[in-house]
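May I ask you to comment on the folded chain given beneath this request?
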Amino acid sequence: MSEPSQLVSRREFCANACQVASCATLATLVSACSGDGSPTSPGGGGGGTSTLPTLTGQFANSRVQVSTTSALANVDSAALVESIAGVFLVARTGATSFTAIDATCTHEGCTVNGVNGAVYVCPCHGSRYNRNGQVVNGPAKAALRQYSTSFSNDVLTITL
């Protein structure tokens, strides 16, 4: 047989409804921040993202100079170059050619410091940029600023 129905007070109903809504919201936030492998998560859909090596650049006369004998010694290598003039993503594209772009994500200003193959990855919201700074995958909508470079005697010069 069925049990007699029990009346629930309005206060008790509202309290229980708020608890259920809070739990549902918390579950959604936890899954959204877990780096679940989605294309827009910082992990970027399946992993493979690693942190770029960091080099120190020397700033003088509107130029940043950095040695290429370590992390930038090989074609297709990339590094994060830090200087008092800014932070740059640098990639060696040929024996004597390089690309240098601003490392500040155009989405919310995080420093882009990850790489997955030839794609730079922002650690905050997963924006992806190619070696020329063009957006490959958002949420960023604007490209990263590109700088001209020159190379001589194993020293890369980024002109600001």
Notes: Residues 50-159 form a domain with the Rieske Iron-sulfur Protein fold (CATH 2.102.10.10).
